């Protein structure tokens, strides 16, 4: 079985950017699974379906018309929705909230998890998300649970939004982070939790490089 690395953690923990760098240094691909849920959430919004409306969201899966996939260009993941590049569109607060909602539904998760597992069997890969180590890749070579305090995660998210011209107040972002944490950890279907064999990496007081090195150390200890 190819080398597989599972990185889970709450919203705003820096999973995507950290995973990008770790995968780059290891010379393997990084699959951002959260981007796939964001793409499906975006699909629901574009169809005029409330992401909280489970019945109508699941009917979108039954239609068979939605195609969420990824491709890699210059070492970066491009997220596709029906063949359309939505990599930028899915990085909004609205898409993030929609992703958290639709990810609770069995048909949505079944569809996307199946595709994620297929890709991980094809080549060495790092996957990050909410339930990689517990559901998607329970036999991953190395498992990491990456987290940070809500305040630190909200501040990081605020800086990301500022770079895009979004002036959402810090207090609102913090409320959103706390709401997402509650939603992700209390959902009935595969709630966010640390796998029993995952190594906890709390990056509250770590900079980017320190976090990368901490994760690489875990991989080396597990895989060599």
Structural class: alpha/beta
Proportion of strand residues: 15-25%
Number of strands: 8
Q: Note the run of SSEs as H and E.
A: EHEHHEEEHHEHEHHEH
Tell me the span between the first and last alpha carbons: 15 Å
How many whole angstroms does the radius of gyration measure? 17 Å
**Major sheet attributes:** 5 strands, parallel
Average pLDDT works out at: 92
How many helices? The count is 9
Describe what this molecule looks like in 3D.
- The protein has 224 residues and is α/β, with parallel strands linked by helices.
- It is built from 9 helices and 8 strands.
- Strand 3 (68-73) and strand 4 (76-81) form a beta hairpin.
- It is globular.
- The two termini are 15 Å apart.
How would you sum up this structure in a few lines?
The chain is an alpha/beta fold and about 220 residues long. It has nine helices and eight strands.
List the helices and strands and how they pair.
Layout (H helix, E strand, L loop, with lengths): L3 E5 L6 H12 L2 E4 H14 L7 H10 L4 E6 L2 E6 L2 E2 L7 H10 L3 H17 L2 E5 L2 H5 L5 E6 L2 H14 L6 H17 L12 E4 L5 H16 L1
Parallel strand pairs: 1-6, 1-7, 2-6, 7-8
Antiparallel strand pairs: 3-4, 4-5
Helix pairs in contact: 1-9, 2-4, 2-5, 3-5, 7-8
